[in-house]
Amino acid sequence: MRRRGEPDEGAAHLTAAEAKKEARRAQLVRQRKLIRRGKVLMCVGGLMAIVHLLTHFDLFGRQPSGVVDLTVGYPMAMIIFAGGAILAGQ
Question: Is pLDDT at 64 greater than 80 in this prediction?
Answer without folding.
Answer: no
